[in-house]
Structure formats: structure tokens, C-alpha cells
Amino acid sequence: MSLSRATLGLAALAIGFARAAIVEHNFNVGWVHANPDNAFTRSTIGINGKWPLPAIEANVGDTIVVNVTQCAIPPGGSFTYRFKVEQHGTYWYHSHTHSQYPDGLRGPLIIHDPQAPFRDQYDEELVLTLSDWYHDQMSDLIPQFLAKSNPTGAEPVPQAALMNETQDLAVRVEPGKTYLFRAVNLGAFASQYLWFEGHTMTIVEVDGVYTKPAETNMIYLSAGQRCSFLLTAKKDTHQNFAFVGSMDIELFDVLPDELNWNVTGWLVYNEDRDLPKALDVAEFEPIDDMTLVPYDEAPLLPEPDRTVELNVVMDNLRDGANYAFFNNITYKAPKVPTLYTVLTAGDMATNARIYGEYTHSFVLEQDEIVQIVVNNHDDGRHPFHLHGHQFQAVYRSEEDAGDFDEAALEDADFPAIPIRRDTLVVWPNGNIVLRFKANNPGVWLFHCHIEWHVVSGLVATFIEAPEQLQEMVTIPKDHLRACADGNVPTKGNAAGHTRDLLDLSGQNTPPPPLPEGFTTGGIIAFLISCLMGVLGVTVVGWYGITKPDEDQEPPQSPTLAPLINRSDDADEAQPNRGYDGEEDERQ
Ligand SMILES: *[C@@H]1O[C@H](CO)[C@@H](O)[C@H](O)[C@H]1NC(C)=O
Ligand SMILES: *[C@@H]1O[C@H](CO)[C@@H](O)[C@H](O)[C@H]1NC(C)=O
Ligand SMILES: *[C@@H]1O[C@H](CO)[C@@H](O)[C@H](O)[C@H]1NC(C)=O
Ligand SMILES: *[C@@H]1O[C@H](CO)[C@@H](O)[C@H](O)[C@H]1NC(C)=O
Ligand SMILES: [Cu+2]
């Protein structure tokens, strides 16, 4: 563990938990080499020359200061994230910029709470990350994914599953002790089933929300989700036990022969004994997170003041690539980051139009009750994540149930005390209903946490209480300097116009729709048959050899507002990509 954490631990002991501390880190972000699955050495994004990344740990009330140094903003300079932590729980920090987190820029962020309801029930605490691992870099994979040669939008399948970013995780346990495991799925794509042989997990937290203790033998953790559970070690030490993370292969369009979608770790009671092979589990039956109950028993929020309905659609645009849409909009980042538009638009900030047509922006009034209905018109599972809030998960339909029927279901049909979390999976062709109170002014994205679907546009923007936000927020100078250095404008509407804020000419747009008469099914069938015929290979092989289109516009990641994003991630900008002299190839 890093020196800073050791120091922090000592400081906490010395002064007790009464006084708020400042937890400082200096992060130098840059490329390093790693081979966590012992199959392939690749470049990955590290911090201070190391990978996996350190956990950031603090107590509720502390202030976290992270001085991130990176060559991109500003070149050779640094950028400081400083925020007071007012919420407890298990989080992670990661970069969405250019989809960097699957390249390694992902680490746990743990906020300890001396008041946690389970504080007296464990002896030791352990962070356990789950993730998927690609041998190729995102800068190579994205152009293959978002291309006319991939009209069905098949997502690249990872090469391996990792636990704590390795396939060789042995956790030394002492007989009779109880451990608090903080599990985080840092993956780009795959959900994972997690189970411990011979032991029971007692869930006590999901996504920062304490729960009533709930016993289970297995949990399902999507990309972006977190879960803490207590696990009591056995009293005798004659045997070691396997625990397994198993990627949800239903998410994969193809299942490469050589893929082992499981990763095994061990609870080590006795170093002289074998590390046993994991047993085969015939069926997966994880606990249904909709059955969890928040510890504080906060009741169902009242009927919504407004409902936002988002229909998930996958479709092709004129470039032939497959995009993801909420309703008819696929997200395209604005020229001016939305937060800066809010802060420079004066009275116009309450008009959703100024944020652009392709940011899918909704302006929320302070304290209104908002309901989000997601109807999944796609046959895949999607973990939806909202920044800035832990929503109530008021309803989730079965698979294939179709759209949410507001006329058929009313509040009496919803749980009186719904679970809250910030990431919830919707089943194929099913629906979910989420509710929250707009009491946290900010610019909050709502997106699928599968990074491929962020890339293909499954993102909407909530602009919550913009007038209050204007009063609350001043942009630090180093932000503005970083934007200036990166040529990112910080004034005006989505298109950068400062006088007529309703003028969106020149805004960033996705490719135009398919021409009339082209059905999507038709174009896909046509393209697939051509490819299969010409190449004579399976879809699996086709992935490996497809070259990115020369004319492909580089995909843009959404612009985030880390400044006041108190719910999850400290998103970081692009690290130095110029290493090993390979820069030209990748840009
Ligand atoms: C952040 O780190 C860089 C590089 O070590 C240093 O030059 C800079 O002064 C630091 N900034 C702050 C605010 O500590
Ligand atoms: C997993 O890695 C984190 C750092 O990311 C570390 O704090 C933790 O102790 C590790 N967990 C185990 C079980 O070794
Ligand atoms: C992964 O584990 C599951 C559950 O035990 C098992 O059914 C499956 O065959 C395993 N997959 C591989 C590739 O070993
Ligand atoms: C989406 O459809 C609505 C209603 O038909 C229309 O007003 C809007 O302009 C469309 N948006 C885009 C981005 O095409
Ligand atoms: Cu998705």
C-alpha cells in the first residue's frame, strides 16, 4: 500500500475519528506495462509508475485533495480535485475521457464511516475489485466497434476476468474473524457473478447505501456497481477455499473458444494446504437487489412531479455503424461542456435547448420529484447509472415484459421502502422505474455503465436546479486554464455561441440517419453477407482483422463535471499518450 495510506491510517489512530482530515494524493498519470492475466503484456494507464492503482481512502467529513499530473491538461502540468466527502461507502475513481478506464485508469475510492451500522460487526476490511481485461487498447478497439464493418454493434469481448486486477489473488484469513469485503466492479463491459465456496455473504451496503443485512451465496455486480458484505471465516484451518468471479456471458455476442470467463481467488487459512480448484456451479442464482431494504428505511418518494421516459434503441446511422439511442437521440458531447453553459447562460440556463440537441438534456427544478422510466427495446442487459444521486429503484420488470405501463401499476404496487443505489440493471426488453428528489444542483449524466454504450451514445444529461448551481459554483482557475490549453471553450451554448443562445448552428452532431428506404435489418443482412462471403471467416475472427475506417470520426466521450460530482467518480482527463514513440499510430 502507498505511503499516503499508511500515514493516513496512523493519523486516524492518533486523533480518533472526531477531527476531519485532509487526505492528499499526488497522482502522476502515465503509461506503464502490465500482464495481469499472464497471457499478454500491454500498455496500461498507471499512477506514479504503478498499476493496479491505489485505493483512495478517507473518513466521512474529510477533504480529499488529489493533485493529478498528466501531460495532456495542461501539457506537463497538473489539475487538482478537491472535495469534502459528505457521503460514506464504496466508490471508485475512473476516467471516461477517451474511454480510458478499461486501459487501466480505475481504482477504488473508499469512504469509511465510524457511524456505519455494521461498524462493530467485523474485524478487518478488504477491498475486492472485479474487472474485465482487454489485451488491446481502447484507442484500437473503439474504431473497430463503431464501424460500418460492425453493423450489429457487437461489443469487443474481453480476454480475461480479473480480481483486484490479477488472476492470482490469495486473501489470508484468520479463523473466526469477520471481514468486511468491499466489492467494486471496475469493468468496462462484463457484469460478474461472485461467490465464495463454503461461506455466506451478508450484504450491508450497495452503491454507498447501507442495507438491512441480507444473506446470500452469490451476488451479481454489473460494471459500475458496488456491494459490501460481511463474511465470517471458519473456525478451523485445515482447508482453503476458492472464491470466483464469473463474467456474465449473456452479454457477449460471441464466445471465443479460448476465453476463460472465470477468475478464481482463495481464502487462505493455511499456507501449507493446496489452493483448491473452484467447483462447478450448475446454476447462477444471485440475490435480487430489488429485494434489499435500505437501512434507514426511507419510504417511497411521493408521486413524481415529472417523468422522463427513455426508450433504449440500437440502430444504424448513415456511416453504417451501430449507435445506441435514448428515444431518437444518440449522445454527442457539446462543444462547450454543459456545466460551463449553465454558468454562462444567465436566465437562459433553464432552457434545455441551449445545451444542444444531441446532449439529450433535461432541466430539473430544485426539489422536484423526478421519475425516470427506462424501457429497454434492446435484447441486452444494461446497467444504468445516474451521477449525483442514489435513486430509489421502485420497479423492475421481468425480461421481455415490454414497456412500463403506467396505467397498470401505481404507487401501491411499489415497495414501501425501495432500495436506493446509483446503478441498476434493466433486463432485455424489460423496463425499470427510478425515482429521486432533485436536491443536489449539478450537471448529472445518466448513462449505461457499459463503456461501449457510452461510446455509442447511450447517455442523457440532467441539468438540476441550474439557477441554484449558478449561485453555488465558481470554476477554479486551473479548470479554465486546462480548458484553454485543450482548446475547449468555456462560454456560451452547446455550439459555443454567446450572444444568441438559441442558435445551435455548428453544434456537434452524430452522423445523419440512414437514407429513406434503407431498413436497418436490410443493411445489416447485406453487410454481414458481404463480409462473411468475402472473408469466409466467423464473426470472431473478423474482429481481429478489421481495420478502423480511415474516414471514421474519432468517437467522443461525454464531458463530465467532476467538480461537483459528489456521487461517484473523479473523472480525469487524457494522460500522456506519447510513449514508446507510438503516438502517431494511435492518433
Ligand atoms: C502537483 O504536483 C506537481 C508535480 O509534482 C507540482 O508541480 C504541483 O505544484 C502540485 N500542485 C499542488 C497544488 O500541490
Ligand atoms: C485489493 O486491492 C486494493 C487496492 O486497490 C487493496 O487495498 C486491497 O487490500 C486488495 N485486496 C485484497 C483482498 O488483497
Ligand atoms: C466458469 O464457472 C462456471 C460456474 O462454475 C462454469 O459453469 C463454467 O463452465 C466455467 N467456465 C469456464 C470457461 O471454465
Ligand atoms: C426526436 O423526436 C422529437 C419528436 O418527434 C423531435 O421533436 C426531435 O427533434 C427529435 N430529435 C432529434 C435529435 O432528432
Ligand atoms: Cu448498455
What keyword list fits this structure?
binds copper (II) ion; disordered C terminus; binds 2-acetamido-2-deoxy-beta-D-glucopyranose; disordered N terminus; 9 helices; copper ion binding; 587 residues; 6-stranded mixed β-sheet; alpha+beta
Topology diagram in text:
Layout: H1 3-15, E1 22-34, E2 42-47, E3 56-59, E4 63-69, E5 78-84, E6 89-94, E7 106-112, E8 124-133, H2 138-145, E9 160-163, E10 169-172, E11 178-185, E12 192-196, E13 201-206, E14 209-216, E15 219-221, E16 226-232, E17 241-247, E18 262-268, E19 306-316, E20 322-326, H3 338-344, E21 361-364, E22 369-376, E23 382-386, E24 391-396, E25 420-421, E26 423-426, E27 431-437, E28 442-448, H4 451-455, E29 459-464, H5 466-472, H6 477-485, H7 520-535, H8 539-545, H9 583-586
Parallel strand pairs: 1-4, 3-7, 8-11, 10-18, 19-22, 21-29
Antiparallel strand pairs: 1-2, 4-5, 6-7, 8-9, 11-16, 12-15, 12-17, 13-14, 13-16, 17-18, 19-20, 22-27, 23-26, 23-28, 24-25, 24-27, 28-29
Bound molecules: 2-acetamido-2-deoxy-beta-D-glucopyranose (4 copies) and copper (II) ion.
Task: Explain what the structure shows.
- The structure is a single chain.
- With 587 residues, this protein is an alpha+beta fold.
- It is built from 9 helices and 29 strands.
- The chain has helices at residues 3-15, 138-145, 338-344, 451-455, 466-472, 477-485, 520-535, 539-545, 583-586, and strands spanning 22-34, 42-47, 56-59, 63-69, 78-84, 89-94, 106-112, 124-133, 160-163, 169-172, 178-185, 192-196, 201-206, 209-216, 219-221, 226-232, 241-247, 262-268, 306-316, 322-326, 361-364, 369-376, 382-386, 391-396, 420-421, 423-426, 431-437, 442-448, 459-464.
- Residues 491-516, 547-587 are annotated as: Disordered.
- One of its GO terms (cellular component) is high-affinity iron permease complex.
- Keywords: Cell membrane, Copper, Glycoprotein, Membrane, Metal-binding, Oxidoreductase, Repeat, Signal, Transmembrane, Transmembrane helix.
- Belongs to the multicopper oxidase family.
